[in-house]
Every structure is written in structure tokens, then in C-alpha cells.
């Protein structure tokens, strides 16, 4: 996993200033979703009450992940409502067409009217102490949607400042290297271009451009090549039926697998096994 190199002193000053101006908690997170720094350090007690339950924690992570994905793909701030109904925003920090980290602000109550208790019971049914949850909720600052949107735009300016002043950098493997690591570890999965881009937290265009520039082949061609090379190993070293070999390398359609294999090696899978397999040599 790639590590973030952060200018912690200047970042702390920036986050502190943002909080003093807006009154909203702001944090910086790495691409895996780990909080690296925040002001104030503690989240809202309401959030702690929600996240101490497995269902609440999973729901928080899911809605945050969706927002981060949209922000990274669009390279724009994303304002959204979390599963518990609070307003939040996320802004990507880009480096060489990649989202290497992101800023997140929240939480705030919206100015929408309604039965707070009934809404909390509907959204957070897994919390037993509804009275305590409601008290914690009502202590969260309330702002109109326009204010949250304006703060998100300010946070976007902060992200640009962070990159232009190199307050955050990412060390470690490049995107093409991470792509190949993904192929090696997950080639048996159903990996569409969209899915590979999602797992790597980049856009499809960025993934294709950088991988092709590095290897002279696109992501799908490299994935197919790796699958076929893995199939060669299975054919030569096992007695698995051809259909099972295809499935084990991530190609569900055996006819399509045979077509790809013959086009790549000028042999059918069966011919390859007879010519190179250990069983043929024994």
C-alpha cells in the first residue's frame, strides 16, 4: 500500500483555520479511507453512537465510499447526505490524474423540517437508546444546504492549495504497478474496466492512459494475457477439464476461452496440454 508523505505542521494549520472559519469538522484521509488528521480530533458523539454498532459502521463506510468514488471520478467536491441524514462533503486531492487522498467535512444537520425522533428511529433502528441518540443529534450544528455547498467549494480551494504547495505526496508504487498487482491478486474475479478503475480509485481514462503508456497494452489486454498465461500453467500441470481451467482463470465462457487461447498460442487448450503437459511427458 502506498504511504502518504504529509507536511503535518502546515496541514494542521490549514485544517484548524478551516474549522475556525466554518465551524465544521474537517479531516484528511488516505485513499483507503483511514483518517490521517482532523480538526477537531474527535468526531461528533452522535457519530460515535452510530459507529459503535456494526450495522451503523458498515452503513457509514458504504455511503462515504460512494461519495469518495464520485469525487475521484469527477475531480469535484461532492456534497451528500449520510445514511443517518447528516450533511457531509468530500473533495479529492489529485496527483498525476490519481486521487491520492481526500478532504472530508461534516457533520451538519440540514435545515429540513420534520419529526426528528421518527426519522432517527427509521434510519438508526439498531441504536437502543433513542433518547440519547436524539440528544446527541440535536447538539450537531444546523446549517442550510447553501452554506454546506459554499464550504465544500472552499474545501476544494484548500485541496488545490495542498497540491500546489506539496503538503501531501504519495510514496510507493505507480498506478501501472498497482494495476498489475490487482491483476495478479484478483484475475479470477469478474474484472470489467469499470471495476478495475473503481478498485484503484481512478477514472477509466486515467487507468487506460497510464497502463498503456507503461506497458504498451491496455488494461483489458494485459488482464487477458495474464489469464491465458495462468491457464497454460494449469493445463500443463493439472488434469482439470478445459471448462474448469477457464473458470479458474476468470473466464466463464469456455468457448470464448478456447477462442482467445487459440488466437494467442495458435493451439487449442487440448493441443497445448498434449504438447506441454506433465502428463504427456510421463
UniProtKB/TrEMBL annotation:
Keyword DNA-binding set for record: yes
GO molecular function, one term: DNA-binding transcription factor activity
Domain HTH araC/xylS-type: start-end pairs: 177-275
Keywords in alphabetical order: DNA-binding, Transcription, Transcription regulation
Domain of life where this protein originates: Bacteria
InterPro entries in the record: Homeodomain-like_sf, HTH_AraC, HTH_AraC-typ_CS, PocR_dom, Tscrpt_reg_AraC-type_HTH
Keyword DNA-binding (UniProt): yes
SMART domains reported in the protein's UniProt record: HTH_ARAC
The protein's name in its UniProt record: PocR ligand-binding domain-containing protein
Organism this protein belongs to: Candidatus Fimadaptatus faecigallinarum
Source taxonomy: Bacteria, Bacillati, Bacillota, Clostridia, Eubacteriales
